[in-house]
Amino acid sequence: MGEGEEVGNKQILLRDFVSGFPKESDMALNRSNTIQLKVPEGSKAVLVKNLYLSCDPYMRSRMRKPDAPSYIPPFTPASVITGYGVAKVLDSGHPDFKEGDLIWGMTGWEEYSLITATEALFKIHYTDVPLSYYTGVLGMPGMTAYAGFYEICSPKKGEYVFVSAASGAVGQLVGQFAKLLGCYVVGSAGTNEKVDLLKNKFGFDEAFNYKDETNLDVALKRYFPEGIDIYFENVGGKMLDAVLLNMRLHGRIAVCGMISQYNLEQPEGLHNLFSIIAKRIRMEGFLVVDYYHLYPKFLDLVRQYIKGGKIVYVEDKAEGLESGPAALIGLFTGKNVGKQVVVVAHE
Amino acid sequence: MGEGEEVGNKQILLRDFVSGFPKESDMALNRSNTIQLKVPEGSKAVLVKNLYLSCDPYMRSRMRKPDAPSYIPPFTPASVITGYGVAKVLDSGHPDFKEGDLIWGMTGWEEYSLITATEALFKIHYTDVPLSYYTGVLGMPGMTAYAGFYEICSPKKGEYVFVSAASGAVGQLVGQFAKLLGCYVVGSAGTNEKVDLLKNKFGFDEAFNYKDETNLDVALKRYFPEGIDIYFENVGGKMLDAVLLNMRLHGRIAVCGMISQYNLEQPEGLHNLFSIIAKRIRMEGFLVVDYYHLYPKFLDLVRQYIKGGKIVYVEDKAEGLESGPAALIGLFTGKNVGKQVVVVAHE
């Protein structure tokens, strides 16, 4: 294609704000959009071809009317969805980027994107791992696991660690970090297939299917007869309430997400907060954006772990931009096994 | 009276475990008990005459069947209630204590106590303040305010601080510490008299009567249009839920108590925990027992503040051991104005 050529640019749009459980039909494929494959004269933007898009639970909060507390602005109805992705630079008006560069960061759910917020892009220097890893284990979810576990949980060798949504992009890595440190690690997930993965692929000491448990308190007491030192919270609701009853003295809860609550009109009530006093628990919410200064350190560590076979990583790839809405919604029913990625183009 | 004389020793007993709201009749005055005013031969105990007894909210949890999470053992039904107090040593089998010493620490709700757990006693060296202060501003509640504010809240000059149950033994001191540091401080309380006290005696910037507010979220937005950096939590329930909606980024919540929940069969549900992520809040429970190593530092600081008139302190004194049950129960209806003390003897 010639420079500056105008091409078709399929997009996934959010039709309107969503309350309750999101459906595929809340999103739409726009086939009629076009884009010029050149950065406008004088602009410092970059023009990229999107390769991999990341499906992340936090995106649910951007589909919601901006009435609930959130930390990022909502999507714009009838506009393209945005999210983390891996892309290749086709043209650049910014001195830090040039044609052919690979980047990861905030892009659009479309074939090509003109990105003006270049400060949120990371250049990819290492291509000895699959590029899609930069939507997961080497990208935002990986950094989330790293910051949450090492910076918030204050982990020590031998401690008892519980991870919910443990086979997801963040959870699988948290569990492996904890194992590498010498902790006892249990994960919960929502299918037996994921439980198998946790025990047999990711090396968790134990794992259970929370949907098979009628009483989460009893389940946790079975796996943690001496209680939990560290809880890495991804789900919220009833699981958090049960965990609070099972924390050990001076336990720590890193609150990363509460995916079980995102589609409820009114979040479930938590009743066991008094444990925070009785057990002297520290419960701390965090966002990965506060920790990106640690990215180079994280990248060095995790690349070595991956190359040394000390960390394994499972992705669930949906092929084609058109598969994006179903893939995103699948997160909330737990359809994905491992990190959910949408493959827009292979290069 | 002669050494080793046997004397009458009135006691307050807990009749049986209490569920729901405690009543005076859950306790009983035992007039028939006697005690020998001498430590048994070979014992390392101390025999004390109790002067002041402290009424503290945590005592409610010791009246409950040991089914809920707690950090201290329950009282023994049909036995004397124990708690913090100030007492005078009449006889000692322990080398660290001698007749005439004044102490504060765990004693019994009775005229005289034989204390075997002497490791939990503090010797009183300074009598240039009222002795009853060692049940409050210079004792456990004071240390609680000090540890919670300085060690848990990570306070900085100019921050916005909210204290609930602010006229209580702990709250009044937290607010004054925060003012001395240069914070903006608002307190809540349950009567207009207490609100006046907060504003006109303790120097809070603002105060409000939570019982006059139909919507605590609206009330907090009125006093904290820019949000709350530090919440010193004494009450739990609806107030905590409203505070969560009004925290600022990187806010801190020191969870000291949840008095609104102690008499409920089932604690109220909290719905706004997601704010912990959105606002990156650190919420941390603590118990004063973990911080007693700081007591000498605390004592130096607060004695100087008191002598310099920089900290004021309000007590609510009930006269006579017989008044103990009503005084203790009054805590849960907010009857007390300031720190509730029971005067057993003036010396």
From TrEMBL, chains A, B:
Domain Enoyl reductase (ER): 64-342
Keyword Oxidoreductase (UniProt): yes
Pfam family, one: ADH_N_2
Family: Belongs to the NADP-dependent oxidoreductase L4BD family.
Organism: Tetracentron sinense
MF (Gene Ontology): 2-alkenal reductase [NAD(P)H] activity
Any one of the GO BP annotations: response to stress
Keyword terms of this UniProt record: NADP, Oxidoreductase
Record protein name field: Enoyl reductase (ER) domain-containing protein
Oligomeric form and interacting partners: Homodimer.
SMART domains: PKS_ER (SM00829)
